[in-house]
Amino acid sequence: MEKIMEFDSVELSVDGREVVILDQTLLPLDEKFVTLTTAEDAFDAIRLLKVRGAPAIGIAAASVLAMCMNRFSGDDSAPFEREFVRVKDLLCSARPTAVNLKWALERMERRYREYCRTCGNTTSISTDELRRALTQEARDIKREDISMCESIAENGLTLLKPGCGILTHCNAGHLAVSRFGTALAPVYLAQQRGYAPRVFADETRPLLQGARLTAYELMKAGVDTTLICDNMASLVMSRGEVDAVMVGCDRVAANGDVANKIGTGGLAILARYYGIPFYVLGPSSTIDMNCPTGRDIIIEERPAYEVTDMHYLQPRAPLGVKVYNPAFDITPAALVTALVTDKGIFRR
Ligand code: MRU
Q1: Ligand 1 atom closest to Cα of 182?
Q2: What is the pLDDT of residues 42-65, one digit of tens each?
């Protein structure tokens, strides 16, 4: 698949001592890269959504964990392990909903334990070898994510027809992953193969990922893009403009319930009413078989000012108003036409 952009949203430097991210909070006005060198800065970057999107935060966390261990100067195995666990736990606590964060960090820990097991006893552990193993694991996580996104693109493309209208929510594109995207990956492939897809991008209140990020990256790739406010989706669907809804996912429970950006569940209900297929696209790393149903997924709640003040010139709500700001919702499996992953298309 041809590259969508010149840069990746997360990059572990060649020497493994820095992680560079594109600060997504500044888009679309500024394309500014930030260099992370500490676990604390990385925690803030994930929490504040400078790096965001389920796969991207997993890749960022794994890269930062490797980076922190490359920077840790001691060679004794006990303090090395204490630092590893401290950084891992800190990063894991940054956001609760997207399973990819936990998944990537646990994979790093498995690699750590596996290395220690092969050494047999703590005296023969080489922290340099361990650093190399962790760095390689972080790079593998990203490389595998790129290839999963390419498979999602090919699988998702089979659901699209030339000239089709696609409605998407939040940002599940290049910026939210390693490269290409999940929900937007088939759109990019369709564009490259001459299908001329038309995309309606929900603005996605309150943080405007659709307006700021999806519209930005789709337009850069030359895709026909129309931005709508979230409450316009019903009208656009009723007029026959939408052939498919395609969204990403932050966690898929074992029963097929899907956690994704707040507003996704409402779109699924609308799509069912208008008879439009509702597709959820994501890498297999987003499926959490340890989570039985959507009710077991922790929904992140974010600060009130994101609703009342952020992105406005002045506050747009009375001071002190009660605000409820859940960042995700759960779409019941029954409303999902198919789950499109790197391993194939799964219908109920
Ligand atoms: O809060 P965000 O911006 O990290 O939420 C991201 C989403 O909900 C995306 O739709 C989801 O992570 C899929 S990303 C490929």
Answers
A1: 15
A2: 999 999 999 999 999 999 999 999
